[in-house]
Write a structure and sequence with these properties.
This protein is α/β, with parallel strands linked by helices. It has 18 helices and 8 strands. Strands 1-2-4-3-5-6-7-8 form an 8-stranded mixed sheet, sandwiched between helices. Strand 3, helix 8 and strand 4 form a beta-alpha-beta unit. It is elongated, with a radius of gyration of 27 Å. It starts with 7 loop residues before the first helix and ends with a helix.
Length: about 425
């Protein structure tokens, strides 16, 4: 019978230990081993670093987060310091950013107590000051009273009339923004429809979302409105926030505003994402918009809410995600009726087809495969009319494709922004 001199559990564990903690720390630990602690070194290498860290069920980045959470909760500060330093300086793909460590500590404050999280912040900050230069992170002074929730951003209202409600998410990576991205919502929605995409984009970008006039917490002047007015609203907001040229992401009405903004205020637009939108409606569709306005004026928004949900989402999505659909229905029926019909008028009379050739920025047009309100043919008109435009069709998506197919929508938008 042969005998393999290698202890494979030990060797596997040792490799995981090196991958997670780095060669320098592991070599120092091994070199300091002696007759008293060598057995313990062997034990933790085999059982912690192979039996646990060697399991493929969770990646190393996730396990780092778990270790930090547990060591905060138990007050194991020596171990916490070791793993914070290793997480910040770790291998690409498994390291944690300062923002991610901050989020672990924020969550620990709720589940392990504020005193534990407070101590964790003190330890992590001391380490961050040591390694900030190595990881390209710059600590800056910040006022606690001005801190904003990363998942919703700093909120405000614009000057002038109508006053527009907006949110601003600054880049979470602590670096200068790659772009300023503006998210412009659909009719009957508000800026919260973009939360998922906004939080993904704000890792590297400054992200602004806002409520159109007559929607959400923005003012609702007497209508009807014109698309040019909605574009001028947006331009005024961007100038007030001193954005410079932006990447405009608009869905449905938001995409119509984006077209008009690029035509009327070209210096404010760097690139366009036009999702589930059109440059014009045929006469029959315009008549439908007029009928919608008449119904709302006579009976209120509740009278059209179910029909709107049927247009916004596929039947399958309405069945599987009833809670989400209910949320959007509540938003529609709670929208100011005058603001809603004012924007209906702007949408129904949109007309940029003959001017699309004047849009001089890159554009991504997104269509929903099952969208009846703005079908693929309308998206194709946009893609054909804008000189530097491409078209992506999302499968199994209806009108609110960013909600119905969020991952596919996000991949399309982020892939396009990477090329800008």
């Amino acid at each position: 019978m042969s005998f393999d001199p290698l202890d494979h559990d030990f060797e596997r564990g040792l490799q995981n230990r090196r991958d997670v903690l780095g060669d320098a720390w592991v070599d120092r630990s091994l070199n300091n081993a002696n007759s008293f602690n060598a057995d313990f070194q062997n034990l933790i290498t085999r059982f912690a670093w192979h039996e646990i860290w060697g399991r493929p069920g969770l990646d190393h980045k996730t396990r780092r987060a778990i270790v930090l959470s547990i060591t905060v909760a138990l007050g194991r500060w020596e171990e916490f310091d070791l793993h914070v330093r290793a997480a910040l300086l770790g291998q690409e793909g498994s390291r944690l950013t300062p923002d991610e460590i901050k989020e672990i500590l924020m969550q620990s404050a709720i589940y392990a107590g504020v005193p534990a999280a407070n101590t964790g912040f003190t330890h992590a900050l001391a380490i961050l000051r040591e390694v900030a230069g190595q990881i390209g992170y710059e600590l800056e002074s910040a006022a606690p009273g001005a801190a904003a929730h990363a998942g919703s951003g700093r909120e405000g209202s614009s000057a002038g009339t109508p006053s527009l409600h907006y949110s601003v998410r600054e880049p979470r990576n602590g670096k200068a923004p790659r772009h300023t991205v503006v998210l412009s919502h659909a009719l009957g929605c508000d800026l919260t429809m973009w939360d998922s995409l906004a939080n993904a984009l704000s890792l590297e970008n400054r992200v602004i979302a806002y409520d159109h006039r007559g929607h959400g917490a923005s003012e609702a002047p007497t209508g009807p409105y014109a698309m040019a007015e909605l574009a001028d609203d947006a331009a005024r907001l961007l100038r007030e926030l001193d954005t410079g040229p932006v990447v405009w992401v608009g869905l449905s009405m938001g995409g119509m505003v984006g077209q008009e903004l690029a035509l009327r205020h070209p210096s404010l637009v760097r690139a366009l994402v036009l999702a589930n939108t059109t440059s014009a409606y045929p006469d029959a569709a315009r008549a439908v918009w007029e009928q919608r306005i008449a119904t709302v004026n006579a009976e209120g928004i509740e009278a059209i809410a179910d029909a709107v949900m049927a247009r916004y989402f596929t039947e399958a999505f309405r069945a599987e995600k009833a809670g989400t659909v209910s949320r959007f229905r509540r938003r529609v029926v709670s929208t100011d009726a005058d603001g809603y019909v004012g924007c209906c008028s702007a949408v129904g009379h949109v007309d940029t087809t003959a001017r699309l050739g004047q849009i001089g920025v890159p554009a991504l047009v997104i269509a929903g495969e099952l969208d009846q309100g703005t079908p693929v043919s309308m998206a194709q008109t946009l893609a054909d009319g804008i000189p530097n435009a491409s078209l992506v069709v999302l499968r199994e998506a209806s009108h609110l494709s960013a909600v119905e197919q969020p991952e596919a929508f996000k991949a399309a938008v982020m892939g396009f922004i990477d090329t800008v």
